[in-house]
Amino acid sequence: MALRLGPLKFPWPTKDSREDPSTRLRAGDPYWDFFLNTPAADLANSVTELIRRAPEGNVFPTKAELHTPEITSSHVKELARYLGADLVGIAKLDSNDGSSPLPFAGEDKGKGEELYPFAVVCAVRANYDPRKAPGIGGQVPVQNGLFVSFVLSAWIRELGFRATTLADPNGEKLAVAAGLGTLNSDGRLVTSKYGTRVHVANLIRTDLPLTADG
Fold first, then answer.
1. Cα–Cα dist 93/32, whole Å
2. What is the pTM of this model?
3. Which domains are assigned to the chain?
4. Pairing between strand 118-125 and 203-206?
5. In whole angstroms, what is the distance from residue 173 CA to residue 187 CA?
């Protein structure tokens, strides 16, 4: 006698729900809402705080022999994508356009652009805007961006060049200067591939000889 089985239903998410996590929120899942929108009660539970508090390493005393700035730029972008950046570009810091960051503590004001002529700008895809979703899940793009910036800047320092990361309020403007997209009327970065669903990671300011995009 043949045994007939009905359709099996598994308790874990289907492929479609993984591709569009917002279906969980639309379905009113309280766990998903908590995951996205409830800030961590203890910052020690947040990976982002661990990365932010990690000290930057020293610059290797001997500079590596490099290719041309164009080839070096391509290597920087390739590594950024390998680390998880969805978009990456390079902007030249110009004190005249008002978009360059202020010098760091201990530097003479006005010399920041001389010491750090370039900014490496990385962006990661964000299903939810981290500025509106403070939960552990909502901050995943921030976590991913911090990881990319941290490792990439460490690699540049190992090459013997200065590199430091900075959360900059003009990050999205510099992303436009780096050729990642345009700004909309709200001042948000709009990319051709992801629209506004991106998060601009901490900028990497460096004196590594590069070629600017944009």
1. 40
2. 0.79
3. 30-206 (3.40.109)
4. antiparallel
5. 8
